[in-house]
Write a structure and sequence with these properties.
Elements (H helix, E strand, L loop, with lengths): L1 H19 L6 H47 L8 H13 L3 E6 L11 E8 L4 E7 L18 E3 L5 E3 L6 H17 L6 E8 L7 H7 L2 H4 L5 E12 L3 E3 L2 E4 L1 E10 L3 E2 L9 H19 L6 E10 L5 E2 L2 E10 L2 H21 L9 E4 L8 E3 L1 H15 L4 E3 L20 E9 L1 H10 L15 H20 L2
Parallel strand pairs: 3-6, 3-7, 7-18, 8-17
Antiparallel strand pairs: 1-2, 2-6, 4-5, 8-18, 9-16, 10-14, 10-15, 11-13, 12-14
């Protein structure tokens, strides 16, 4: 009915345009009527596309949920996504995409990249990249779901670990495949080149770089725009949140090796105790955030692990702090790194540690990622398009986050406009109960994280399809 009304209005506008076109004294009115005609046709096309997506989703949703559950039960760790990538490649190939597998080149030669690139050319027009992640986390699932993961495998260090899609990449993959299917069915309503990529190793933040290092933008069409979604563990299913500008922080991984002179635990005076220095360092690090940088530049410094010593009565020679740093601006990141090194050396000097045993700061380059910057103009354009699809009240401008991911690499340092939005994935009643009780919901990366599949997938597919159509519509 909406299509019929819009089309009828368009015809009426066109007739008025033709009639008034004879009146040379009414140029402004002629222009207004003509633009109203064009707008009505646009509304008709948009409504028609959305009705098509909704009807196709009604038909396919059961199959999509089954796909999601299959992926959830069979997760694969970063650098090991062989079966997941093969499944994604086969699905895209069946839809008519030209598919290339094993795209990516890691710095570590022993790793295989299971990146997938699928290209569909549909006439002249913009090139739009849509990304999903393929990997899961070393988390043992405790949800009790009938389709819960029971997978155990060995990580890159050879340790046996449980594996779980605790970050929702199974939701992302299923939404990605559903979007691809919708866009293929709507080929007569868009033009340009669609590039769908399955990215490995997002959780270790080196998959995007691996794909770019293997010629992603030279072997395949370079995008004019890049899009992605990520599920949210604290937003109800059916809603979308987004933030223009710096939306997620950059991550820097650091090992700080505090060196001392070990000895007997009963004779600390004969040693230079690195455990004491490490303990002082944990607290001193927080003064960087609170006293050395502007409060207007957000930053987080967290010591995630401390390793040192072998026995209660032995003072070790060294202690290692594993640190994560989160920032938006590169200059703030560099300031924090310099401050960590300065404070560590100062504490060691105050403890009488010889200069040749000064602390060592190591930046783990292959675990770093840039801040995710959503192009503001693109963000608002896509948010408006999604709002027309799922209802503008369901599209919420939220606050930026200090979590990180490597999608920002695809922007080539802001040369390519990119946009990532957040997809609500939680049962609304659970979100409301959490708000009332103050008890937090299981977060992403939790062994208890449980997305609500059907409404989440519906909203994800409808939203991403609308986003691509907005950029590629005829």
């Amino acid at each position: 009915m909406q299509v019929v009304r819009a089309a009828f209005f368009g015809v009426s506008c066109w007739r008025n345009y033709q009639k008034r076109g004879q009146d040379v004294g009414a140029p402004i009115m002629r222009k207004l009527i003509f633009f109203a005609f064009l707008f009505s046709i646009s509304v008709a096309v948009t409504a028609s596309a959305q009705q098509s997506v909704d009807s196709m989703l009604d038909r396919d949703i059961a199959s999509l949920v089954s796909t999601y559950k299959m992926l959830h039960a069979a997760p694969e760790l970063s650098h090991h996504e062989e079966k997941t990538a093969a499944f994604v490649a086969s699905q895209l190939r069946a839809l008519g995409f030209t598919v290339t597998e094993r795209v990516g080149k890691y710095a570590e030669p022993e790793w295989t990249s299971y990146g997938v690139v699928a290209v569909m050319k549909n006439g002249a027009g913009p090139t739009v990249l849509v990304r999903t992640e393929l990997d899961a986390l070393p988390v043992e699932e405790k949800t009790g779901l009938p389709y819960a993961s029971t997978v155990k495998t060995k990580n890159d260090a050879g340790q046996e670990v449980g594996v779980m899609h605790a970050c929702g990449h199974d939701i992302h993959i299923t939404s990605f495949l559903g979007t691809a299917k919708m866009l293929v069915a709507l080929k007569d309503q868009w033009h340009g080149t669609l590039v769908m990529i399955g990215q490995p190793a997002e959780e270790t933040v080196n998959g995007a770089r691996a794909m770019l290092a293997d010629g992603l933008y030279t072997r395949f069409p370079k995008p004019d725009f890049a899009l992605a979604l990520h599920d949210s563990g604290d937003v109800e299913a059916g809603k979308i949140t987004y933030y223009p500008g710096y939306a997620m922080a950059g991550a820097t991984s650091v090992d700080l090796i505090i060196r001392g002179l070990g000895g007997h635990g009963a004779r600390p005076e004969s040693t230079k105790d690195p455990v004491i220095i490490a303990a002082q360092m944990v607290l001193a690090l927080q003064t960087i955030v609170s006293r050395e940088k502007s409060a207007l530049d957000p930053a987080v410094i967290t010591v995630g692990s401390i390793h040192g010593g072998t026995k209660r009565n032995i003072i070790p020679d060294e202690v290692t702090l594993q640190i994560t740093i989160r920032t938006y601006k590169e200059e703030v990141r560099q300031q924090i790194l310099a401050s960590i090194e300065r404070i560590a050396k100062g504490l060691a000097l105050a403890a009488g540690v010889p200069e040749d045993r000064a602390p060592i700061l190591k930046v783990i380059e292959n675990e770093n990622s840039p801040a995710s910057y959503n192009d503001p103009e693109l963000s608002e354009r896509i948010a408006a398009a999604i709002g027309r699809t799922v209802g503008k009240d369901n599209v919420i401008k939220a606050q930026p986050l200090m979590v990180s991911e490597d999608f920002g690499y695809f922007s080539l340092d802001h040369q390519i406009p990119v946009f990532m939005f957040w997809l609500g994935a939680v049962e609304p009643a659970k979100v409301e109960a959490s708000r009332k009780s103050g008890k937090p919901l299981p977060s992403l990366h939790s062994s208890l994280f449980v997305p609500l599949p059907e409404p989440t997938l519906r909203t994800g597919i409808r939203s991403m399809t609308a986003a691509v159509m907005e950029l590629m519509k005829k």
